[in-house]
Design a protein that fits this description.
The structure holds 2 protein chains of 2 kinds. Chain A is an alpha+beta fold. Chain A contains 12 helices and 12 strands. The longest helix of chain B has 16 residues, at 171-186. Classes of the chains: A alpha+beta, B alpha/beta.
Chain lengths: 372, 225
Amino acid sequence: MFGRLLWQLLRGNRGRLAVALVAIVGGGAVISAMFNMEIDVRKKLTQEFRSLGANVVLSGQGAGDQALMRESAAEGVVERLQPQGTIASPFLYVVARTATNQPVVLAGTWLDRAPAITPWWQIQGEAVLARDDISHCLVGKNVARQFALAPGSDLELRYGDKVAHFSVSGIITAGDDEDDQVFANLAAVQNLSGLTDRIAMIQLRVPGSPAAIQSFASQLKIALPDVDARPIRQISETEGSLLARIQLLMITMALLILTLTGLCVLATMAALAMERRADVGLMKALGGSIGRIVRLFLAEVAVLGAVGGVLGYIFGAALTLWAGKRVFGVMISPRLEVLPLTIALMVGVALAGALPLRLLGKVKPAVILRGE
Amino acid sequence: MMARLVQVEGLTKVYGKVRALDGVTFDVEAGEWIAMMGPSGSGKTTLINILGGLDTPTSGRAVVDGVDVARFDEAGLTRYRAEKVGFVFQQFHLVPYLTAIENVMLAQYFHSTTDENEAKKALERVGLGDRLTHVPAQLSGGEQQRVAVARSLINHPKLLLADEPTGNLDETNEQIVIDLLRELHVEGHTILMVTHDPSIGRLADRRIDLAHGRLQQIITISAEN
């Protein structure tokens, strides 16, 4: 009978309840769209920050050759401790001389990892895709201009009494010091400089939150006490700060929308409570306890909230797709995990908005039945 | 000898400075039909409300089926209304969005458990077997009042309280409801009915006249006739 009464209550007051339902669906749609976007924006932002390149640097302590690390030892520790998905690339810097005896900074690294570690590089010409390619190099745009180099040019570099010949594969535009450097694979630079198994630093691109990155850096410090391991704070903290701000904005907006939805439901329920005084008076006269009567009305409101939550989620999914495409210019996918959250919030808001139904507890059946 | 079902002793109800009931005393035997008459404001409805557990007296006793209604708290009054009394009101007071059978089942729901078949029989009993799924707006005044009578009887109450049950009905429907009350009386139901109509009052076993909250007289109808 409870279900039957509930159904008739919903049917019998559908006009009034439709107003509350519209408010709940509207609130639910905006809330679910915001949650969908928040989750997706968080993911996309994290990807964007990841594309900024390395976020942890491992370097030796001291000065000169003493600051160099043993490549085999450092890489072994990194491989053991690194979180899944980490990309690492070693670097060795020497000052070489050109055929005209001009100094130039020669950086040795794994050039096949360059797209991941230095994704901001714009390469005119060809990238060097094989780590064992010791005959090709990339040159910064300033170096290329200074020595009139272009893709396909030959470049002779000397270090001490050793000479290496490279073919310029591409010209790098990085927008910073790298424009003044020449990049070759690590093995070539180690051969030229005689610094076998030596590196100056390892740059790592580590996935995860700023806290996880900090934790990884701390573990490296413990495992390699002679080595300085530090997160690149500008990136990791900016990422954390921006995500926190977006989250704060979303929570504030969600609270505002929930409050407005609740107020709308409150106004509707206040009117409904007045209309139902006669019904409640009669139900009390028939022996209905106020607890049982109010439970019936609260169930009605909860159903309203749940239906509003489901419809709100559906409209919110459409809103998410539209806003993603038209406002942000990206595909934002609705998330299924937002559905139970939207339903729970809308049921909560509807129940909070049903506060005026408490007034029904004060209804005196004798007064109502007299028609007052 | 019939058992005493209702015992009212020195019943007084004061609203502010108004004494709606002033020391009313009378008894009702089980199976009796009592007509309660008097001008407006004489305290008839107040008395019926107290006996029905819808109101509480300021002083005095109103014992129904061995329990003093005046001693109940809110929860006790709620149970009392569900189990001991059935109401028929002048304004019918049906829930507008429930069908005839659901209005009857509503009383069952608040009493204990619902039995749709029993509710159907109750409506058939009052001649509404073909109106089970009609909502009040689809029923005539007389039909609505018959639904109210079926609802009042569904939990087998000890006492049927009717407040001007024919006050809103045309002559034809008034006769239908009166015939129904007569049948219930013949079956042994105890009925306490408020009416302004002397012709209806004469159908009862006894008539209680009230004026200004006081008992004026109790007349045994057969003796009057």
